[in-house]
Fold this protein.
Amino acid sequence: MGRILVRVFSLFHKLVYSNGAWKGLCETCLDSAQKTYLSINKDEISCRRNKCVLCGKKGRVYPVEVQIPDFSKGVVIKKVNVCTKCLDSINENYIRFKREQIMGSACEHGHEHVHEH
């Protein structure tokens, strides 16, 4: 399974990467983060103040369930903290990734695409 790149704005690399840096998430973790992103607007998840696992920023974070490979157990499920800015970026990349999947699936089935110029 490949990695889906998500743009994050790390405090530690702000001067070097002023336009952000890329972190890779697997599809399962991207789906889980998207689920958290959608639920923070609908349900009031009890947010907490901590450090974001993606960008390192301290502040308001939300729990995202991720799967971590483990040689002895196969996969370990763990909740990590992600800030709102990184969740926004995840949402943008989630939409782009799903759109590309749909377009790729259509191409494999022989459907033609109409390109506007």
